[in-house]
């Protein structure tokens, strides 16, 4: 199994999927991490990819054509992964990941090593209220 964790520094989990600069991709077998690699991630930080700030109160963002194209670019570098761990994300990003066959797990755990360990032990709560 390959797990992509969104990060800016390779050590902590980014609180928003779209704003993270990198993926730390962990390979796991038999409940243990067997390898890690850092991969670049397209996102809102890239020129021309701006976060939607104009959606109506209570409305979900990330479903217009530009956002979906942006999300496809974010997902393109992790199509070999089965899971993404993030601090939170928009529903449009979640849907793009789902369409690529990648599950989403949201957490308030900041440390990547701790989150991976807890996930592999089946003890990392999935905080779905962090989806917006």
Explain this structure:
- Residues 9-120 form the Dinitrogenase iron-molybdenum cofactor biosynthesis domain.
- This is Dinitrogenase iron-molybdenum cofactor biosynthesis protein.
- The protein is α/β, with parallel strands linked by helices and 132 residues long.
- The protein has a single domain (2-42, 67-121), classed as Dinitrogenase iron-molybdenum cofactor biosynthesis domain (Nucleotidyltransferase, domain 5, 2-Layer Sandwich).
- 22% of the residues lie in helices and 23% in strands.
- The protein contains 3 helices and 5 strands; from the N terminus they run E-E-E-H-E-H-E-H.
- Strands 3-2-1-4-5 form a 5-stranded mixed beta sheet, sandwiched between helices.
- Helix 2 (91-99) links the parallel strand 4 and strand 5.
- It is globular.
- The two termini are 27 Å apart.
- The model is unreliable at 45-59 (pLDDT under 50).
